[in-house]
Specification:
226 residues, alpha/beta, two-stranded parallel ribbon, 22% helix, Beta Polymerase, domain 2, five-stranded mixed beta sheet, 2 domains, 5 helices
């Protein structure tokens, strides 16, 4: 027998509203006062703060043990471009079962050539694979990680595929195992991008419809850069 949904009264409507508003301006102000190194960032969805990379571990420990954020939802990175003053930054999303809400923490890497960030995998074990993936795709070194290895690409893969300079169509790369390459006569080749998820139009050169894809498609007249 299917149960009917609970009756919504004015009393539990107020309760729902309290739950939705538990991470509000008052909560944000208290968090910023407690952690003076934080600064609030503009956001359209959840509370977002900027944290110096030197304070990431201390903040994560406090969020877990004192502030009620018992779950790390995800951790990734942003490449702001080769000309950006601070090229790389990490973004972490925490969730609190107590506050019923999310907190986004943005932290910039201090070095554009060799970006690094403290690992929080000992504080939030879920960060282990997230940090490995971020290292694999962006080349950010997570200091103190117990096993920082590539997780998607092979260990000797020479590129970081989510960096801005990496072409959307990929780069020809020999397979790491000589025996596999010898038997299959195959290599890792760039994927044809016509009709792919990054293409807004299939008419003419891809650079006309996707600025980031200039000279990165098999349909381009000029050769793809390597």
């Amino acid at each position: 027998m299917v149960k009917s949904p609970p009756c919504v009264t004015s009393e539990n409507q107020r309760s729902f509203q309290l739950v939705e508003d538990m991470i509000d301006e008052e909560f944000a102000q208290k968090l910023l006062e407690k952690h003076e190194f934080l600064s609030e960032m503009e956001s359209v969805d959840c509370l977002t703060v900027e944290c110096p990379c030197s304070e990431v571990e201390a903040l994560s420990l406090s969020l877990r043990d004192e502030d009620g954020f018992d779950m790390l939802v995800d951790l990734t990175a942003i490449d702001h471009g080769e000309d950006a003053e601070g090229r790389f930054s990490t973004v972490m999303h925490f969730y609190s079962l107590i506050h019923r809400g999310y907190l986004r923490v943005h932290s910039s890497c201090s070095d554009n050539e060799k970006p690094s960030m403290p690992s929080i995998s000992e504080i939030y074990p879920a960060a282990n694979w997230h940090e490995r993936e971020t290292y694999d795709m962006f080349g950010i070194d997570f200091l103190g990680h117990p096993d920082l290895r590539r997780i998607l690409m092979w260990d000797d893969y020479p590129y970081f595929p989510l960096r801005k300079e990496f072409p959307l169509a990929g780069i020809d790369t020999p397979l790491p195992a000589d025996d596999v390459a010898e038997v299959t006569q195959a290599s890792v080749e760039p994927a044809p991008m016509m009709g792919g998820p990054f293409v807004s139009s299939g008419d003419g050169p891809m650079s006309d419809s996707e600025p980031r894809a200039r000279d990165e498609s098999w349909t381009e007249e000029s050769e793809k850069p390597v």
